[in-house]
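2.7 Reproducibility. Because tokenized structures are sensitive to small changes in the input, we list the exact sequence used for glucan endo-1,3-beta-D-glucosidase, including any N-terminal residues retained from the expression construct. No trimming or masking was applied before prediction.
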Amino acid sequence: MDRHIFFSFFFFFLISILKFADAGSIGVNYGRVADNLPPAVKVVQLLKSQRLERVKVFDSDPAVLRALSGSGVKVTVDLPNELLFAAAKRQAFANSWVEKNVVAYFPATQIEAIAVGNEVFVDPHNTTKFLMLAMKNVHQALVKYNLHSAIKVSSPIALSALQNSYPSSAGSFRPEFVGTVFKPMFDFLRQTGSHLMVNVYPFFAYESNADVIPLDYALFRENPGVVDPGNGLRYFNLFDAQIDAVFAAMSALKYEDIKLVVSETGWPSKGDENERGASLDNAAAYNGNLVRRILTGGGTPLRPKADLTVYLFALFNEDDKFGPTSERNYGLFYPDEKKVYDIPFTVEGLKNYHDHRSPATGGQRPTAPVNGGGGVSKSTSGNTWCVANAEVGKEKLQNALDYACGEGGADCHTIQPGATCYNPNTLEAHASYAFNSYYQKKARAGGSCYFGGAAYVVTQPPKYGSCEFPTGY
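Resulting structure tokens (single pass, no recycling of outputs):
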């Protein structure tokens, strides 16, 4: 080979390696709210066969951590919300938790981060005030075992932690949390060299605003883009716009130097009639195009050099989850380990990847169902309410309440201590109020008063003390 040609080829090869070395990283959330999943050992084999090098779990199950030992897969474990109080109040508890759930497995199991809680700001149990103390105590436990340089401590926040997210340049955090949580958290992340974890779901924004958000814009497909009037930047996908809203909110507080990890994002492959956009084609397009967007490098319009680590949600469809049909259909794989749809997870896989849009929709906005008011099915038999079914038992009722007030987005402020609907202080009463809030916000759509059998529809106004149940939002 001619020397000039050889060096040209070598230079191009080196640049290509450097480009992909600087690109982002793809991981996956391994949720297990299901009764039909394969054993952890087989799951790890699946991760390795798909060359997924990062996994995030929602607890610290010994079987999972043992199965990941020696796999080379980097792991983020979770200290659940229900343990925040104990971890905040007692350093000894944090030390013990870290010893049992981290030290016992590291370094054979490559634990790289601890998520302290998950979306704590929307937790119905009012655990926000314990978050920072818990994070600091967990970090101090890592210092005790000399693991603080290898393992980062953070806490995933939902996009609802923002007061404003549109336009991106106006991004700001909810003011009630700025002084008490966000500034102390960012100081902690800066001091420990950690990153902010954010859960971002363009699907929710599209589902609620399908008449104004183009589907192509939500799915990373070719589109004219949207210009942010505040900073003049043009956005070609909703994901980047949402991420930059978080970056703008951080910049407003003078924390531009803190990195960001997308701890959850995904798109459901199936949904109820009113869940616009939930389909197999759209899920494949969103996740496949997202992988391409992350692995080929480049940050966001506001942070061009901010290559992101992104955790897809989720590895499997989870049949025991509460809420609408979409909640049970975010999986990349069925429980039998077959792919729900075929997308790559590596740079090599991207070479032969094409986003095959359905000829039926052509990537256009879906039309509203004929029985819908704006795409949602409303009751035609007068006012109805959603109440708790106490017969399912306290555990199932509590799990459903946690979902409604958390991921479900129900208005649960009125059942907090001292609020108008706190009394009677019973699980059934609180769950009924939360379920009804969710049901009404979903415009009483079919399937929105189910919660895994923990709720049912009534035609008479519920009575729990003096609390009034709304009939619409």
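Residues 385-458 form one domain.
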